[in-house]
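User: My instructor asked us to take a sequence, write out its structure as tokens, and then describe one feature of it. I'm not sure where to start. Here is the sequence I was given:
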Amino acid sequence: MSVHVVIGFGPAGAATARLLAEQGHSVRVVTRSGRSREPGIEHVALDAADSERLSAAVRGAAAIYSCAAPPYHRWASDWPPLASSLSAAAEDTGAVLVMLGNLYGYGPVDGTMTEELPLAATGPKGRVRAGVWEQARKLHEQGRIKAVEVRASDFFGPGATDGGHLAARVMPRLLRGKAVSTLGDPDAPHSWSYLPDVAAALVEVAGEERAWGRAWHVPTEPALSVREMVGRLADQAGTGPVAVRGLSPAVLGLASVFSPLIRELKEIRYQFDRPFVVDSSAYEAAFAVRATPVAEQVKATVDWWRERLATTR
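Assistant: Let's start with the prediction itself. The structure tokens for your sequence are:
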């Protein structure tokens, strides 16, 4: 089997690395701090923005999976050198660069999001993410690298923790039958990317040459609002109805004084103030991975969080 290098070991990087290992590939994970080796996965400590060292770590690999992301408040300063290093490593080694992207680059849109939409974001984080892909796409078109981007909505499911809008801020309270809070309108339709489906899509396009050179949306089930998702999770958990409260702008404004993360979320609040709906039909027409049914997503998520909370008490 091939060697595959995963950059970052957050929720998406970990899910991707473990899926590759399950498929029998040799997997090397690159993070700043490194980790203890686990079955099928070698962990390497280095700064992925160091292009020379990264190229050495990638040499001989079939694919590089870009699953790392700088802290939210450092995107503008840290993403460009990281993206340049990844592209340089792909060019130096010939490995296909598989980029995990998001939907920020489109900016606020009316209607369903498809891959054909222009990357018209005006906010700094949206422009940074658009620029990262535009740089890689240009290099691909010049024949210097092989690149593909897989765009996901908000992560949800086993392994999605602190950064997920249906994760650490929701699941512990929900499992106790307590009210939960959310950004924006809790009744606005919203697309959720199930983490195992994200990993499956990344791995699939790495081996599909016809996928390269463009962006694809992760296979995604029909949009459901935060209130609907919380209701399904509560039903699965057997906790009874759980109240869902939208955080007011005033509360968010006060919280942003103390939290850098909340300050940064102001730019993308529109994603929860209005419908935020993904069309993944292009991917589904071309490739094999399909979105996991919502009922299975919900059951796996509740089971995972119950086990996680039980072991951390």
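For the description part of your assignment, you could build on this observation: The CA atoms of residues 65 and 98 lie 5 Å apart. Try explaining in your own words what that tells you about the chain.
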